[in-house]
Amino acid sequence: MKDYRVILYYIYAKIDDPVTYRDEHHLFCLNNSLLGRVIVSKEGLNGTVSGLEADCEAYMRFIHADPRFERVQFKIEAHDRHAFNKLHVRVKDEIVNSDLPVDPNVSTGKHLEPDEFKQMLADPDVVLVDMRSNYEHSVGRFKGAVTFDMENLRELPDHISEIEHLRDKKVITYCTGGIKCEKASAYLLERGFENVYQLHGGIIRYGLEEGGENFDGKCYVFDNRVAVDVNQVNPIVISTCHVCGTHCDRMVNCANPECNLHVPICQNCGEELEGACSPACQQHPLKRPYDGTGNYATKSNHYNPIQGFRSIKKQEISKKSTTE
User: Record's InterPro entries (predicted)?
Assistant: First the structure.
């Protein structure tokens, strides 16, 4: 039995004072031993946290107790340990970076529940459009879906021309948990697309509730698991090792920090190249020690709502002054 839970959620809801709420939210997570990443913005919340089942239950009650967030839909997955090493609760301008001139509270694509989405897959007039980044859909995507070679959602306007010919189709957008599609589908409506839908709850919810049929590969996630199984019906591996070309869905970062290429690399090539993506990176003087995972934790600025910001730079200055 797995004692931990990983929770994914978002909501577009007005937060007048995101800084104050950030501190309140952060303290709750600290007091309940939760780790993860939460973004607080004037436009809403976007979070993924992990913790023991009871702590996650308390967290969900905490969210739902706030009238602004009572409509939050949680995607809950069982896990055998924390899916994060740290806790970050940050204030940002948007809960998902997009810079798209739309408001999902005003207009967005029609929400499809997982069972409705599954039924529509058989419709010949339906086209699936993946709204995730290239490294995400490279390791997993729905059969026949349109994908864009983009690093983030801000680049979507540059790729609209690639689907202009699909204006007379039923366009269904999808992403990991649904948040990107709120703005992406709204943007398609803004650009004149009429029959626009979105998979409510994203790939994760579809896998949990409908078995993930016809999702090829794994779903990229933004925690220590990196990529998770979705399809329990007809799964296949679609990605290949960056080094040797064998089928592989093990996503890693190159051990050379100046490269840091994020690609699939199989276990054998990872060991042979000591976590590097090439012999050149293997010989790089700054190459990080390889622990077999190919994932390297980033440094934290150690924000704590009680102590305030203690930046890494200040710590280093203080450390230096005590040794001189």
Answer: Rhodanese-like_dom, Rhodanese-like_dom_sf, Rhodanese_C, TrhO, TRHO_N
